[in-house]
Amino acid sequence: MTGVRAPDARPARPDRIQIDMLEWPREAERSHALEANGEPHLLLVAPDADPPEEWGALTDWVRVPVDDLDLWARIAALQWRARLRPVPELDESDLLRRGVEWVALSRLEAKILRALLAQPGAVLSRHHLGRAGWAGGPPGPRSVDTYVKRLRRRIAPLGLSIHTARRRGYMLEIDGVD
Question: Are residues 76 and 59 in the same domain?
Answer without folding.
Answer: yes
